[in-house]
Q: What sequence folds into this?
């Protein structure tokens, strides 16, 4: 199965790639510096079979092989330990079945510029086929990032009015930000 690895140069990009390959995935790098909407549309337009889309700051564990058992009509997100929340939370990777990819392609103009994957998930023709796997932890999100990446994550959550859901006080202590 292919895993489309989206990155803007996070420190864990090479480790994420190695880890996916270790679990048997063929990794397709999406590492062009471009807006998130453009990167996401590029992924949607080139993916042609069941696959994963994963951010390079997510390190999956062996449980990710569960996605190899999924049918081709689902869009599934997985639960990981999220360092930004200091909690277990649903995050990426996201499994895309071939049928779902086509539905999103057919509705690509409806995607939100800033949250394309979330808006794809909520498309009326996609939503009935979505699942969140919360029975296991499938990896970790946000570990070993640099200060610039952490500040970008903070700004992203601030822009979405979601700061109360995250523990940036802990992040700043862990990474020595703001000394």
A:
């Amino acid at each position: 199965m292919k895993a489309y690895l989206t990155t803007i140069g996070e420190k864990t990009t090479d480790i994420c790639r190695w880890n996916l390959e270790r679990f048997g995935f063929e990794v397709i790098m999406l590492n062009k510096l471009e807006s998130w909407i453009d990167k996401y549309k590029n992924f949607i337009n080139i993916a042609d079979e069941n696959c994963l889309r994963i951010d390079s700051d997510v390190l999956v564990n062996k449980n990710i092989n569960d996605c190899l058992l999924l049918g081709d009509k689902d869009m599934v997100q997985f639960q990981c330990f999220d360092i930004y929340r200091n909690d277990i939370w649903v995050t990426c990777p996201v499994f895309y079945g071939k049928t779902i990819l086509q539905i999103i392609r057919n509705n690509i103009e409806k995607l939100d510029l800033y949250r394309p994957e979330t808006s794809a998930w909520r498309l009326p023709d996609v939503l009935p086929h979505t699942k969140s796997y919360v029975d296991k932890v499938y990896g970790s999100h946000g570990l070993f990032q640099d200060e610039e990446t952490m500040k970008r994550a903070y700004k992203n959550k601030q822009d979405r009015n979601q700061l109360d859901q995250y523990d940036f006080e802990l992040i700043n202590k862990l990474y020595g930000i703001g000394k």
